[in-house]
Amino acid sequence: MNTSFTARHFEASKRLHNYSVEAVQKLTKFYDGILDCDIIMQPTQDHDEPQSAELTVKVKGDLLQANEKAATYEQALGKAIDNMTRQLRKYKDKRSK
User: Fold this and answer.
1) How far is CA 18 from CA 49, 88, 92, in A?
2) pTM of the model
């Protein structure tokens, strides 16, 4: 799986970059046909949930997206991964029928 990481409007730490890439690699447990994964993190205007994480996962013939907001980038990424996990399970079930 090819993984790209983008930090918009802020400078991401090496720790955040590594954490994000490692967390996304675990998605292959749910579906091994993932071709590419794009991670995009950016600040938002929301005072309660100022950080946003977006995942775009390319699988054969389809594109899955998850966008979540939270107080920290790690929490936003965790929510987005949970969302993507549900989508991948559903996608896998549809393809197996």
Assistant:
1) 22, 23, 27
2) 0.93
